[in-house]
Design goal:
This protein is an alpha/beta fold and 271 residues long. The protein has 2 domains: 2-160, Alpha/beta knot, CATH 3.40.1280.10; 170-271, Orthogonal Bundle (Trp Operon Repressor, Chain A), CATH 1.10.1270.20. Helix content is 48%, strand content 15%. It has 11 helices and 9 strands. The chain has helices spanning 11-17, 20-28, 64-73, 93-99, 117-123, 138-150, 159-162, 190-193, 197-215, 217-225, 231-270; strands at 2-7, 32-37, 50-51, 61-62, 80-90, 104-108, 126-129, 182-183, 186-187. It has a 5-stranded parallel sheet, sandwiched between helices. The chain has a two-stranded antiparallel sheet with strand order 3-4. A two-stranded antiparallel ribbon has the order 8-9. Strand 5, helix 4 (93-99) and strand 6 (104-108) form a beta-alpha-beta unit. Helix 9 packs across helix 10 (217-225) and helix 9 packs across helix 11. The longest helix is centred in the C-terminal third of the chain and has 40 residues, at 231-270. The N and C termini lie far apart (80 Å).
């Protein structure tokens, strides 16, 4: 698979492609990349790539000519082109899996206030956002997408590592532990030391459900809506919610008793 990144600052993604697992994937020939400097396609000696927007307003836009020439240089019309923008569709694990099946992806890294709409209309296949926030650098957003996608390509990492990851099946990942078995007075859950694989599987499923229910209940609702929760998982959720309700009730009772005790002590002090 090949990643082609069009950018005003190629040195930003360059470091990513030259390190860690990505560097090994490139060395093995599983991943290829091309960093295209948009400034090389500017029309003046100063390599100017920004201009004021029609209609006025704050900031500058990336000029159409350098960007379109850079896109033409990589035959972008024949490839899947992605523009990173806060106004795009949300980037998800499902989208990453879809994109990992492409032979090549072309990323446009925006700067300034964005790019001319006509460039989007003519070249871009997907406008994608990595989150509900605004960054000054499209390069960082492109790197986030590349990192999420390339690891799903066959041969980059073991398929076993992808199983039960957060978002792989609609749930968040379970807690992980390694040596030592005791750290700052905290111990590893006994079930993980038991060697009983079935009990470990059940414990991990329960922890995934607990974490998803606590941090991303919307994901559980979606699984329920689409009937993708096993009966085992549904029973565990009922057990978890019942336990949580009892725990919260006890917490409220404890707080109420403390408030009554403090009120009584205050009354005694007044007398």
């Amino acid at each position: 698979m090949k990643f082609t990144v069009l950018t005003l600052f190629p040195e930003i993604p360059q470091a990513y492609f030259e390190n860690s697992i990505m560097a090994k994937a490139v060395e093995k020939g599983i991943i290829a990349y091309d960093l295209v400097n948009i400034r090389d396609f500017a029309l003046d000696k100063h390599h100017k790539c920004d201009d004021a927007p029609y209609g006025g307003g704050a900031g500058q836009l990336m000029m159409t000519e350098p960007l379109s020439r850079a896109l033409d240089s990589v035959n972008a019309k024949r490839k899947r082109v992605i523009y990173l923008t806060p106004g795009g569709i949300p980037f998800t694990q499902k989208k990453a899996l879809e994109l990992s099946c492409e032979e090549e992806l072309v990323f446009i890294c925006g700067r300034y206030e964005g790019i001319d709409q006509r460039v989007i209309d003519y070249y871009v296949d997907d406008e994608i956002s990595i989150g509900d926030y605004v960054m000054s650098s499209g390069e960082l957003a492109a790197t986030v997408m590349v990192d999420t996608i390339y690891r799903l390509v066959d041969g980059v990492i073991s398929s076993e590592s992808l199983i039960e990851e957060s978002h792989s099946d609609g749930l968040l990942e379970y807690p992980q532990y390694t040596r030592p078995s005791v750290f700052k007075g905290m111990t590893v859950p006994e079930v993980l030391l038991s060697g009983n694989h079935e009990n470990i599987r059940k414990w991990r499923l329960k922890k995934r459900l607990e974490k998803t229910l606590r941090n991303r209940p919307d994901m559980l609702w979606e699984l329920r809506r689409t009937n993708r929760l096993s009966m085992e998982a549904q029973l565990m959720i009922e057990e978890i919610t019942e336990h949580t309700a009892i725990k919260n009730c006890k917490k409220k009772q404890k707080m109420a008793r403390r408030q009554l005790r403090e009120a009584a002590e205050h009354s005694t002090d007044v007398d």
